[in-house]
Automatic annotation (TrEMBL):
It comes from the Bacteria. Coiled coil: none annotated. The keyword Cell division does not apply. Belongs to the GTP cyclohydrolase I type 2/NIF3 family. Signal peptide: none annotated. The lineage of its organism: Bacteria, Bacillati, Actinomycetota, Actinomycetes, Streptosporangiales. SUPFAM superfamilies: NIF3 (NGG1p interacting factor 3)-like. The keyword Metal-binding applies. This is GTP cyclohydrolase 1 type 2 homolog. NCBIfam families: YbgI_SA1388. Keywords: Metal-binding. Homohexamer.
Length: 272
């Protein structure tokens, strides 16, 4: 396959017009005429992922997070991002990003997150897109049967890739949960929409202390806070399958754990 054929399929699956105005999606580097036989998928464009791509012989790396989100005036190899660009180009490896356009796609990042934690019933966006109610940010669905918050927290921890961060819960451990909202990545901007949706629990990442505390104190749904990387990782398998179904390419989900947090120290339960 030519790289141009692969990017055309990716643009069809995750149209760049769906990306937020501040986002940077699409082809970062690579010759549209080059051959693509192997595609490595990862959440983050970091050195460990490039190492794996070169070792496996990937021709294209598809990442969720952009490498160059903000404008740059150069990519010298003396900088971390510049070194990545130089390594990719020297080894004829292309880099492509599908970020917020993959967040709102159907299926997208939050669909994969919902399925990974057992939420399957009637998935719909938390915030539907104005032009298509099937598409939008986050997902709301139902568990097959009610669980306590403690039980659902354990299910989420088992369904997502392991991280030092783990999964934190805010709310009564015995609270029954059935209706669930999820949002892959940082989802605190959707807290008011989640409250209005009337769900029992909201799973996302990067929740801050004050908004989370005020949300629970005001009687909102319970909150689950997982690692940012872990909430977006399930989408990689979906994207890999979609590519393999449409193109004659070999796909592989990166084995690299690129969550920024690597160590976790358990608190002393006796400390108040």
């Amino acid at each position: 396959m030519r790289l141009s054929q692969v990017t055309a399929v990716l643009d069809d699956l995750y149209p760049p017009a769906w990306a937020e105005s501040w986002d940077a999606v699409g082809l970062v580097c690579g010759d549209p005429g080059q051959d693509v036989r192997r595609v490595l998928l990862a959440v983050d464009p970091v050195a460990a992922v490039v190492d794996e791509a070169l070792e496996w012989g990937a021709d294209l790396v598809l990442t969720h997070h952009p490498l160059l989100l903000r404008g740059v005036h150069g990519v010298p190899a003396s900088t971390p991002k510049g070194r990545l660009v130089h390594r990719l180009i020297k080894n004829d490896v292309a880099l492509f990003t599908a970020h917020t356009n993959a967040d709102v796609a159907v299926p997208g990042v939050s669909d994969a997150l919902a399925r990974a934690v057992g939420v399957t019933g009637g998935l719909r966006p938390i915030v539907p897109a104005p032009d298509d109610p099937r598409r939008g940010l986050g997902r709301i669905g139902e568990l097959p049967s009610a669980l306590t918050l403690a039980e659902f927290t354990a299910r989420v921890a088992a369904g997502l890739p392991a991280t030092a961060w783990g999964v934190r819960a805010a709310g009564d451990p015995d609270r029954p949960v059935r209706a669930v909202a999820v949002c892959g990545g940082a989802g605190d901007s959707l807290l008011s929409d989640v409250r209005a949706a009337g769900v029992d629990v909201y799973l996302t990442a990067d929740l801050r202390h004050h908004p989370a505390s005020e949300f629970v104190e005001a009687g909102g749904p319970a909150l689950l806070d997982a690692a940012h990387w872990a909430t977006e990782h399930p989408w990689l398998a979906d994207a890999a399958a979609a590519l393999a179904a449409r193109l004659d390419v070999e796909t592989r989900v990166s084995a690299a754990v690129t969550d920024a947090w690597r160590l976790h120290g358990a608190s002393n339960e006796g400390v108040k």
